[in-house]
Amino acid sequence: MPALVLLAYGLMRWTGMPLPEELRLPGREMVILWVAFFLAGFAEELGWSGYATDPLVARWGVGRAGMLLGLIWGLWHVVPYLQADPSVAWIFWYGFVETVALRVLIVWLHRSAGRSVWAAALFHATVNLSFFAFPNGGSHYDPRLAGLLVALTAALVTRVWPAGFCCR
Predict the structure, then answer these.
(1) Would you say 130 and 9 are in contact if contact means Cβ atoms under 8 Å apart?
(2) Burial class (CB in 10 A: 0-12, 13-18, 19+), 161
């Protein structure tokens, strides 16, 4: 995920999209944020990956199970997004396009790592940290661009390795 965020940032610079004049990248806070994101992500992944994923994958496969869980995951986060007061477009692109694609990747990773909730939680924490590591605390994060990059990555990964590295 950090590579996709860096790619999104590079594309934003290349195309002249708005970015902050002065870059403030978090330092020490990153460790504290990562621990907090990991603990919260692990709690979430106990439900999403540890409980819900396997029965859905058994029935519908990685891609469709990930999309269904991603839609539910997006709805799960709508209230916090509304409280943060972003635009409706931001909520759509981040809350649904990017979130659904991220969940497909997490389902694929969970299955590829031998049904590891730890792997899912590590990725979940890294996703959250990548957002906040974007210049100036994510203030200029563009979910349209990042969402498309994540969706393309999810489509590519599930097509190239449809069953993951080791598991069906």
Answers:
(1) no
(2) middle
Rounded to an integer, what distance in angstroms lies between the CA atom of residue 99 and that of residue 110?
16
Q: What is the pLDDT of residues 72-100, one digit of tens each?
A: 999 998 888 889 888 899 889 988 899 99
Find out whether 130 and 41 touch, Cβ atoms under 8 Å. Answer: no
Say whether pLDDT at 141 is over 80: no
Residue whose pair of structure tokens reads 């990747």 in the numeric block: 105
pTM for the complete prediction?
0.86
CA distance 51 to 102: 18
- Evaluate whether 111 touches 164 at the Cβ level (below 8 Å): yes
Check: CB of residue 113 under 8 Å from CB of residue 83. no
Q: Specify the higher pLDDT residue, 159 or 146.
A: 146
